[in-house]
Amino acid sequence: MDRQRAQDTIEKLRRQLEEHNYRYYVMDDPAISDTEYDQLMQRLIALEEEHPDLVTPDSPSQRVGGEPLPFFEKVEHAIPMLSLGNAFSFEQLKEFDQRIRKTTERESIDYVCELKIDGLAVSIRYEEGFMVRGATRGDGRVGENITSNLKTIRSLPLRLKEPVTLEVRGEAFLPKKEFERINRVKEERGEVPFANPRNAAAGSLRQLDPKLAAERALDAFLYGVGEIKGKEVPTTHTASLEMLTRLGLKVNPDRVTVKGIDDVMDYVDYWREHRLDLGYEIDGIVIKVDDLALREELGSTAKSPRWAIAYKFPAEEGVTVLRDIVINV
Ligand code: NAD
């Protein structure tokens, strides 16, 4: 594609993606399915890779999430909450593994595979063991203070089993049964139902009245440590998840630590078959380097860490597709 046409298409894709970001992240009301959104984004990334001089820092390909809502107090994250790079094929997973082995000059890498919960990323701060603050990811740098709403999640302890100061990260979500119950109630009241559990969870946590959040049985899995004081820092991700469990936090038991990318692909295959058996929605598998020193070495781009990737499941029957759109722009 010549430069002028590429520039026009890039501009058009950016405007579309910005509009969809606004509806998804700010309004909690998407107009297209995630698969359709991912296709638009892949198209933009491919064109930007072909024409690197056209990449701008404000392009949706370079940015995390959406702006925090103005009526919430803003919370600046001590360590940015990034997004994840995506893989849509095993080929792309192998390339991810090759890049890491090349950079770190290792023969084989240990990975942790986790379910990618389709919810809302949150950060929770405990001081001397007590929950003091909870926030959304927002644009990755600044999130929204949603402490009162997060305190209504019964599986999130208000006090840890040890007096540690810790910022922990995870995903708040709505179990499928609860999503269906809420939508039944909405329909009975003549209200517009939520498009999917992710938007219902985000909509419940990002409103001002904590009573509304308390009426909905939200849940949360924790999957990462942001900052830690008063405790020895683990050297692997596996050990840090075990530490979170010992502290009384809910970590998803459906995870594995494996050696090399072949076992990662087996795990992905298993969950591609079984994802619909779970009581909550997942949209993929997150693959993370286990060795935390290696992660430091690999670092991050402005948008995502180089030591992790999200394998996204292909769209399937039984998974909500909101409406058809024409991807060819
Ligand atoms: P992402 O969904 O590709 O991945 C990053 C997120 O995964 C993290 O922030 C975290 O919230 C989540 N996650 C779940 N389980 C995890 C685990 N075990 N470990 C680590 N992280 C885990 O990236 P994103 O920036 O949150 O969102 C982009 C995606 O959102 C798009 O690819 C699309 O699917 C969807 N989206 C859809 C629309 C739409 O209009 N339909 C608009 C914007 C975004």
From TrEMBL:
Q: State the superkingdom.
A: Bacteria
User: What Gene Ontology molecular function terms does this protein carry?
Assistant: DNA ligase (NAD+) activity
So where's the catalytic machinery, residue-wise?
A: 116 (n6-amp-lysine intermediate)
Keyword terms? DNA damage, DNA repair, DNA replication, Ligase, Magnesium, Manganese, Metal-binding, NAD, Zinc
Detail which positions bind NAD(+). 34-38, 83-84, 114, 137, 171, 288, 312
> Which family, according to UniProt?
Belongs to the NAD-dependent DNA ligase family. LigA subfamily.
Q: What task does this protein carry out? A: DNA ligase that catalyzes the formation of phosphodiester linkages between 5'-phosphoryl and 3'-hydroxyl groups in double-stranded DNA using NAD as a coenzyme and as the energy source for the reaction. It is essential for DNA replication and repair of damaged DNA.
Q: State the protein's name.
A: DNA ligase
Give me the gene this protein comes from.
ligA
State the covered range within the intact protein: 1 to 329 of 669
